[in-house]
């Protein structure tokens, strides 16, 4: 029996499987006709489904995605239109979304949740500096490409200065900040609440307001009861502190963006990135110089700082080496573990020397 599935036709692309659909759009996997190896995601928006507000949202989404380039934000490669549809050609992320990833594992170890949070925080910092609020942060709108997270679906995003306030409901109820639902007046800080819900869900397998019905959900949102972690929750002190500060019902008491980016659990300075190895090498060179000049305390401090960047550098390279002809363990030893062991021995040597000086 022939399938009734008939994706729309696009000049430069062949649309294949349907990935998902919403009120206004359907997303397909597609390939460029001139290069079948290049996969993309095509968001197809039916013009007939758009009202004035949704058209404005779509135009804002295109405008934002055209101007932002960031490793943790899905890239808009092109957009086209015809008499029936508007097409957004987006970067393909082969790992699906974070929601599916969480469901497949039920809960994530804190170290994994933290690495994911760092990537979300990195993209939010970039957006915050441009006065852009996402306003629909949830695991379904965070895609995976290997171990790299990318924010997607900017359909509700807005340009919002810190003092700007909005009143229109935006986003998904399970991830909406209480002030958006209860007061219908909110600002950019609603994104911080949503991040707290996402972190909670990665650690405990469900959102803090998970409910059987919308009525139950609304009751939980409107309650004054502070958010509590599940009984017996095993998380670090920094993780617990951040969760409770993100999930403060009062936006004026909630952690600020500046405090969030500097929080020790987020620790963007030591986030695994392409720059981690360069930072480590630079610190080692400075440490060697201090060592040669006889400034042992300064050298020790720099060596320890270098170690804090070497470890993230290892995490950053793991995915790149998985399918290499040279074994992962060979590369890990050659490029990272040998230098790290050397640094550890040097740090221990300095610490031993300092203890001998103190005892004498």
Spatial strand order of the main sheet: 1-2-3-5-4
Radius of gyration computed on alpha carbons: 24 Å
Number of domains: 3
Characterize the largest beta sheet: strand count, sense, and whether it forms a barrel. 5 strands, antiparallel
Mean pLDDT reading: 83
Strand percent estimate: 15-25%
Sequence-ordered SSE layout with sheet pairings:
Layout (H helix, E strand, L loop, with lengths): L12 E9 L3 E8 L2 E12 L5 H16 L8 E6 L3 E7 L6 H8 L4 H20 L2 E2 L8 E4 L2 E4 L6 E2 L18 H5 L7 H15 L9 H9 L14 H10 L10 H6 L13 H17 L3 H26 L6 H32 L1
Antiparallel strand pairs: 1-2, 2-3, 3-5, 4-5, 6-9, 7-8
Helix pairs in contact: 3-5, 5-7, 9-10, 10-11
What does this structure look like?
The chain has three domains: 13-91, Phosphorylase Kinase, domain 1 (2-Layer Sandwich); 98-269, Transferase(Phosphotransferase), domain 1, CATH 1.10.510; 276-359, Methane Monooxygenase Hydroxylase, Chain G, domain 1 (Up-down Bundle), CATH 1.20.58. Helices cover 46% and strands 15% of the residues. It is of the alpha+beta class and 360 residues long. It contains eleven helices and nine strands. The longest helix has 32 residues, at 328-359. It has a five-stranded antiparallel beta sheet, covered by helices on one side. Strands 6-9 form a two-stranded antiparallel sheet. Strands 7-8 form a two-stranded antiparallel ribbon. The protein has helices at 52-67, 98-105, 110-129, 178-182, 190-204, 214-222, 237-246, 257-262, 276-292, 296-321, 328-359, and strands at residues 13-21, 25-32, 35-46, 76-81, 85-91, 132-133, 142-145, 148-151, 158-159. Helix 3 packs antiparallel against helix 5, helix 5 (190-204) packs across helix 7 (237-246) and helix 10 (296-321) runs antiparallel to helix 11. Strand 2 (25-32) and strand 3 (35-46) form a beta hairpin.
